[in-house]
Amino acid sequence: MEKVFGRPESLLAVRTHYCPGCGHGIIHRLLTEVIDELDLKERTVGVAPVGCSVLIYDYIGCDMYEAAHGRAPAIATGCKRVRPELAVFTYQGDGDLAAIGTAEVVHAAARGELITTIFVNNAVYGMTGGQMAPTTLLGQKTTTSPYGRDPKQAGYPIRISELLATVNGAAYIARVSVHTPKNILQAKRAMKKAFETQIAGLGYSLVEILSQCPTIWRLTPKESLDWVENKMIPYYPLGEFKVPKEEKT
H or E element: which one contains 189? Predict the structure, then answer.
């Protein structure tokens, strides 16, 4: 009998620590499917973040670094420049990338570093207690904005994809989500294109993924899927914000 579905070779057969309904498990699977399909397993190096996915090196079967908070692009840059034949990625959350790591990712993109960033945006600090993040929506309640985010006090949520799309060294920038089967398939296509952009030497690539966080949002897993659709996507529209020049018509 032909096997039509199974665990990706690069996804280790272990249980994860993520909360029920969290999007990280889905994203890990998509990432490992892409690594396998592009035959990159033996030459992939990842950089783990500080945040909920800090233990990603326990779940993906490739070499991994652990970076200080927000510094993953710098570590990835060093790795790629020393070993340009490798496929190098960073896996970062919104607190890691869009707060303390903002300068790191902007300058990595500006330099056109040949690395790929998987940026998971759940609009909150998930690991450290649910504080407001740079991506927290206006009016969204968190432990540090109990009455909702007020732009007069905390400013406006940062749209990282739109920001990086203006940088010349960035070659491929996209925003996707994992809240429906259709969107999961689209997310995988974007991640694959990001790695292909790196392999082709076209420049920096980033895929922002809107992901559900039921525990910190204090919603059921089903309600969190609806929250992504009804709250996040209107402010963070999905799509490709920059594609390699050779793809433009």
Answer: helix 181-199
Coil, strand or helix: which one is 46?
strand
The rounded distance, in Å, linking the Cα atoms of 103 and 215 is 29
Tell me the per-residue pLDDT of 84-125, one tens digit each, with 9 for 90 and over.
Answer: 999 999 999 998 999 999 999 999 999 999 999 999 999 999
Detail the DSSP E strand segments found in the chain. Answer: 44-48, 63-66, 87-93, 116-121, 170-177, 204-210, 239-242
88 alpha-carbon distance from chain centroid: 14
Predicted confidence (pLDDT) per residue in 53-94, tens digit:
889 999 999 999 999 999 999 999 999 999 999 999 999 999
Give the sheet arrangement for strand 204-210, strand by strand.
63-66, 44-48, 87-93, 116-121, 204-210, 170-177, 239-242
pTM check: above 0.90: yes
The letter for the amino acid at 185 is L
Give the per-residue pLDDT at 71. 96
Residue pair 203/197 in contact (Cβ under 8 Å)? The answer is yes
Structure tokens of 249? 């018509």
Domains of the chain by start residue, with CATH: 24-247 (3.40.50.970)
129, 187 in Cβ contact below 8 A? no
